[in-house]
């Protein structure tokens, strides 16, 4: 039973990230279809997801279409009750639903001034007072969830839930624009930046190499504040391996890492790995076994 998920550019589409995390973090099978934002590709893709008008959009295995992230989330939670999208505790579920709804409808200053851009991080973005007010509210509701239900792990309710998926793009905004937050809030941001699923999403966005000029700001830049990435570079073959670690197909594209050359079946497989090798378990397992 496989769903179809329509998304936009991985580096910029915050709502697409949320939709993808619903499937990725809770092991729900999905086929991803992607379009480039602000091009004719969007409407061509969404023609297969009518009546949805925006990404993300989902088609169920039975052919029903779901638009809007909250509707996607609730449908998946209803259809996959054992996946754990919502917290088990009833009081925690109430809080999580409230937080998700507020994120879906609110924080317009933060979202307007600090669009998601996973390709850049700025030293100082000089946030307006309205952005700082949004941050203060976000910190307050994060702290409330963590203090009551977060003892079991780094996430809002201990383990990862849909509420964390909803706030993942907020964490990236704090990272991109170097927004001022408290130490506990920064620890929660760091949990997102270190999460393997998020690292894979960001690596795929870098591999897509799409630039949306309207998302770029005239601020001094700094290195991305997430985990340091292993230094891999594209190169010529031959490689240690004959088959791609992801598809099993013969290799045609290559990268160099730690003195050895590794092969992949296409440029995207190579480039997503090159941009964060440790985020890809199949690749790292292959390097350890060779």
Automatic annotation (TrEMBL):
InterPro entries: Glutathione-S-Trfase_C_sf (IPR036282), Glutathione_S-Trfase_N (IPR004045), Thioredoxin-like_sf (IPR036249). It comes from the Bacteria. Residues 1-84 form the GST N-terminal domain. It holds the Pfam family GST_N_2. Gene3D superfamilies: 1.20.1050.10, Glutaredoxin. This is Glutathione S-transferase. It comes from Albidovulum sediminis.
């Amino acid at each position: 039973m496989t769903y179809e998920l329509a998304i936009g550019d991985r580096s910029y589409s915050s709502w697409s990230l949320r939709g993808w995390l619903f499937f990725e973090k809770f092991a729900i099978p999905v086929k991803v279809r992607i379009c480039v934002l602000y091009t004719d590709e969007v409407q061509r893709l969404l023609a297969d997801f009518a009546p949805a008008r925006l990404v993300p959009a989902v088609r169920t295995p039975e052919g029903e279409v779901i638009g809007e992230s909250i509707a996607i989330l609730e449908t998946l939670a209803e259809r996959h009750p054992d996946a754990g999208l919502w917290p088990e505790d009833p009081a925690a579920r109430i809080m999580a639903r409230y937080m998700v709804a507020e994120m879906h409808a609110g924080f317009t200053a933060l979202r307007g001034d600090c669009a998601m851009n996973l390709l850049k991080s700025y030293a100082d973005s000089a946030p307006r007072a309205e952005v700082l007010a949004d941050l203060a509210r976000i910190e307050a509701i994060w702290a409330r969830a963590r203090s009551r239900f977060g003892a079991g792990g780094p996430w809002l309710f201990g383990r990862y839930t849909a509420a964390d998926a909803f706030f993942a793009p907020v964490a990236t905004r704090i990272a991109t624009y170097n927004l001022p937050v408290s130490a506990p809030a920064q620890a929660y941001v760091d949990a997102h930046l270190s999460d393997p699923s998020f690292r894979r999403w960001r690596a795929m966005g870098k591999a897509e190499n799409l630039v949306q000029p309207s998302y770029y700001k005239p601020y001094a830049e700094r290195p991305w504040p997430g985990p340091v990435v292993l230094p891999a570079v594209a190169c010529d073959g031959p490689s240690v391996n004959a088959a791609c670690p992801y598809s099993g197909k013969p290799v045609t594209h290559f990268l160099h890492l730690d003195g050895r050359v590794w092969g992949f079946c296409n440029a995207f497989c190579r480039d997503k790995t090159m941009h964060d090798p440790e985020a890809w378990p199949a690749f790292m397992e292959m390097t350890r076994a060779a």
